[in-house]
């Protein structure tokens, strides 16, 4: 019977690659947080500068587009009025056509600036385009209100989204 001496590891046959693997494993766990000379820093735009809930809700429309359609006593008109809601990036659309009133919502993306809503005439007589301004102050078309077969028609022209990236 053989007695095991003081230290077992030197007596075991250990492959030379075990030591190399162990050194690489330890070295790989060290975090390097330095930028190389050719890397660029990216600047994140924070969209939390505008509160999600509006404190003061205006009772006046933020944008209006109305076209009279004959006798004003009969309340015959085409158009839309856009009102603020308690949510900063949601608006109430009140749409009019020939004495009929319809409601819908408008949600604009959060660019980190206060939303600005605009309405411009459409290509047809009874149509208009609902838009908003982006961070570059450029008009972004969003929805179009028109009539078809004596009914209001609200269609989405383009969709927009803001994404948040984090490391």
What this model shows, in words?
It is built from 1 helix and 8 strands; from the N terminus they run H-E-E-E-E-E-E-E-E. The protein is mainly β and 167 residues long. It has a domain at 63-156. Residues 33-45 have low confidence and may be disordered.
Summarize this structure briefly:
This protein is mostly beta strands and 167 residues long.
Give the SSE layout:
Layout: H1 16-28, E1 63-68, E2 77-84, E3 90-97, E4 100-107, E5 117-121, E6 127-133, E7 139-148, E8 151-156
Antiparallel strand pairs: 1-2, 2-3, 3-4, 5-6, 6-7, 7-8
- Structural class by helix and strand composition: mainly beta
Helix content: under 10%
User: Which residues sit in consecutive blocks of at least 5 with pLDDT less than 50?
Assistant: 33-45
- Helix tally? 1
Biggest sheet statistics: 4 strands, antiparallel
Termini distance? 60 Å
Characteristic terms for this protein:
8% helix, 8 strands, mainly beta, 4-stranded antiparallel sheet, 35% strand, 167 residues
């Amino acid at each position: 019977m053989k007695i095991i001496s003081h230290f077992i590891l030197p007596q075991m046959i250990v492959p030379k690659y075990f030591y190399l693997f162990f050194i690489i494993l330890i070295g790989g766990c060290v975090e390097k947080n330095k930028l190389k000379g050719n890397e660029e820093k990216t600047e994140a735009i924070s969209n939390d500068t505008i509160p999600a809930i509006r404190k003061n809700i205006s009772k006046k429309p933020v944008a209006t587009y109305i076209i009279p359609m004959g006798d004003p006593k009969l309340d015959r008109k085409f158009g839309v009025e856009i009102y603020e809601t308690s949510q900063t990036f949601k608006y109430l659309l009140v749409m009019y056509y020939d004495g009929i009133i319809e409601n819908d919502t408008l949600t604009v993306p959060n660019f980190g600036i206060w939303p600005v809503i605009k309405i411009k005439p459409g290509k047809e007589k009874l149509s208009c385009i609902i838009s908003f301004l982006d961070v570059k102050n450029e008009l972004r078309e969003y929805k179009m209100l028109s009539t078809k077969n004596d009914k209001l028609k609200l269609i989405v022209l383009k969709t927009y989204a803001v994404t948040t990236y984090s490391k």
